[in-house]
Amino acid sequence: MPLSFDYALIGGGLQNGLIALALRHRQPEASILLLERESQIGGNHTWCLHDGDVTPEAMAWLAPLLVHRWPSYDVHFADLDRRVALGYAAITSERFAAVVHAAMAAGPGAVWLNATAHDVGAQHVTLTDGRHVRAKVVIAALGPDQATPTANTGWQKFLGLEIATRAPHGLQTPILMDARVPQVDGFRFLYVLPLDAHRLLVEDTVFSDHPHLAVDAMRANALTYAAQHGWEVAAILREERGVLPMPWTAPPMTDDRGGPLLAGMQGGWFHPATGYSLAVAARLADWLASVPPEGARGPGLQALRARHASQAAFARKLNWALFRMAAPAHRNTMMSRFYRRPDEVIRRFYALDVHLSDRLRIVLGAPPRNMKLWPRNSREEVNA
Fold first, then answer.
1. Among 72, 131, 157, 212, which residue's Cβ finds the most Cβ atoms within 10 Å?
2. pLDDT bucket at 258, cuts 50 / 70 / 90
3. CA distance 372 to 248
4. Please, which pLDDT band fits residue 382 given cuts at 50, 70 and 90?
């Protein structure tokens, strides 16, 4: 006999974890099944958000996830050093898993780990082990490897090391971008989070034309950066890595009426110009929790999709300019130009909530130097 739930969530990553938390907050009596094919939910990640990325209503259920908060962050370019007066916060996979499990345990439902979906429909899921589930709504939120385009996209590639330093490192403010490093393979920068007096997350990041992750080189880059700043490494506590799409064309529209509701990166619910998805994922989660399961596919979702599509279209135009109008070694000039904009423009950009005036502020003005239309993967571009 099939088991029945109000919601069946396929995938235990960020998107469905946020949906589960929002549902528990807004619909405490709803029965929820969370399926994850791995042995734990949340994977191995550090997710960050800016103040303003989520609404106060969403922060009511998201706040328990936050493990670190800072009042500002720094950016560094060859021609710009700036402290951005916007709050910043971090979520770890460990905290994410603990909070989501606790929320799931607080109401009807279950978390099934090592559970792989075999047949998925709008209101049913069959697992490879033969278990069959019915639900009023099935939501699938799978990672970028499930629906990533291979053309008309750039890539954000990163490898981060969480390190313990022998002496206090002294860093108080996150470094969101330090692009005062060799611009190899695209726009390259180091990203640093001070986690406590002796712990740092040091991440080598590149906005590149290809998805290949040079693991050894990026690991060495992170360690070299730490050494250059006098941070003697006592131990490497953890490593995380990822490759995220930064497309400049819209993916084909997916008709999900006969299948699960597609969320997360698979459903296009992410920020095309950053590769990250927390702000957008929280927005979708909070909306889904505001309606009963029977209304999840109603006109409200279509309106939310249309609003997201408009914002994402502008972000994709920025990607086109970044990847098609600047050679890899000169993309940092575009990013430096962006960080000369007012704090509120930067805040709304990261929240994917830009106003018309923001768009004008971002794109108008003298173009950065070394800008022209570059044919991707040409000899000229590769050697630049």
1. 157
2. confident
3. 17
4. very low
| Architecture of the domain made up of 153-247 | 2-Layer Sandwich (3.30)
Cβ(18)–Cβ(7) under 8 Å?
Answer: no
User: What was the pLDDT predicted at 373?
Assistant: 53
Identify which of 86, 82, 49, 41 has the alpha carbon closest to the alpha carbon of residue 67: 49
pLDDT at position 136: 97
State whether the Cα torsion 206-210-213-216 is positive or negative. Answer: negative
Q: How many CA atoms lie within 13 A of 255 on its CB side?
A: 1
The DSSP-derived string for 113-134 is: SS--EEEE-SSEEEETTS-EEE
Most confident of 35-39, 140-144, 273-277: 35-39
The torsion angle over the Cα atoms of residues 334, 340, 342 and 348, rounded to 10 degrees, is: 20
Angle at 181 between CA 359 and CA 278, to 5 degrees: 45
Which residues have a Cβ under 8 Å from the Cβ of 2 and sit 6 or more positions away?
Answer: 124, 132, 133, 134
- CATH 3.30.70.2860 for domain 3-67+90-148+251-309: no
- Say if residues 277 and 350 touch (Cβ distance below 8 Å): no
Residues 329 and 181 sit within 8 Å (Cβ to Cβ): no
Region 71-89 average pLDDT: 97
> What is the per-residue pLDDT across 317-375, written as a single tens digit (0 to 9) for each?
999 999 998 888 889 999 999 999 999 999 999 999 999 999 999 988 766 666 665 55
Q: Report the percent of the chain where pLDDT is more than 70.
A: 91
**Domain parsing of the chain, residue ranges:** 3-67+90-148+251-309, 153-247, 327-382
Are 182 and 192 in contact by the 8 Å Cβ rule? The answer is no
Which residue pairs, CB below 8 angstroms and at least 24 apart, start in 16-19?
A: 16/139, 16/141, 16/263, 16/264, 17/41, 17/42, 17/96, 17/100, 18/62, 18/278, 18/281, 18/282, 18/285, 19/139, 19/141, 19/263, 19/284, 19/285, 19/288, 19/289
Instruction: Calculate mean pLDDT across residues 282-293.
Output: 97
What's the start-to-end Cα distance of the chain, in Å? 62
